[in-house]
Design brief:
7-stranded mixed beta sheet, about 25% strand, 7 strands, alpha/beta, Rossmann fold, about 200 residues
């Protein structure tokens, strides 16, 4: 039986598996989603960190809800917050967060030089990315030596519902995701969860 927070993440996933309609975006951009991200999502993961990164890249920033948590945790950092959906970026830009640049971009084709960031944070983004393996490689490339990759995502293969439909490259288990991180050179520092999981990896 799913825990309450797991059910919330399952609902997020169902929304994310297709192009969002107007009504779905209302749900994703709601204060309810802010609550779930704060208490059950990436905010819980980054609050465990004791680092002081100078340059942070957020992948899949959406409308900036998660970006706001990152700003509060790392107020001195320069943050580039990226999302594939231009409409979501337009909403995020209206928040006018300090030291944040919101941009439209593709996680599997990052337009940054090698070694640009000290930290990359990914929250519920890679299960949207068709070529998530390439996105992991791109993340590794844009990180500096000893840079950190903070992952919070959903193990899509762990959901029985998706065993009934055709497999897609985006579907991964937690272990498959971790194996892919290792294959490009990441060292796994810590990880937790199963259905919804988090990983702390170091270049």
């Amino acid at each position: 039986m799913l825990k309450k927070e797991d059910f919330i993440m399952f609902c997020i996933l169902i929304v994310s598996m297709q192009k969002m309609s107007f009504h779905e975006k209302l749900f994703v951009n709601s204060s309810y989603m802010k609550f779930s991200h704060r208490f059950f999502g990436i905010n819980r993961v980054i609050n465990k960190l004791n680092d002081d990164p100078k340059d942070i890249l957020e992948l899949g920033c959406g409308n900036g809800i998660t970006t706001n948590f990152i700003v509060k945790k790392f107020p001195k950092a320069r943050i580039v917050a990226l999302d594939y959906d231009a409409d979501q970026i337009e909403i995020a830009q209206k928040k006018k967060l300090n030291n944040v640049e919101f941009i439209v971009g593709d996680a599997s084709d990052l337009k940054f030089k090698d070694g640009t960031f000290d930290m990359v944070i990914e929250s519920l983004a890679f299960h949207h990315v068709k070529d998530y393996k390439k996105a992991i490689k791109e993340t590794y490339r844009v990180l500096r030596k000893d840079g950190q990759f903070i992952v919070f995502d959903i193990a899509t293969r762990s959901i029985p519902f998706f065993n009934w439909i055709e497999k897609h490259p985006t579907y991964f288990s937690k272990n498959e995701f971790i194996d892919e991180l290792k294959s490009v050179g990441f060292k796994i520092s810590k990880h937790g969860g199963r259905f919804k999981f988090w990983v702390h990896a170091v270049k």
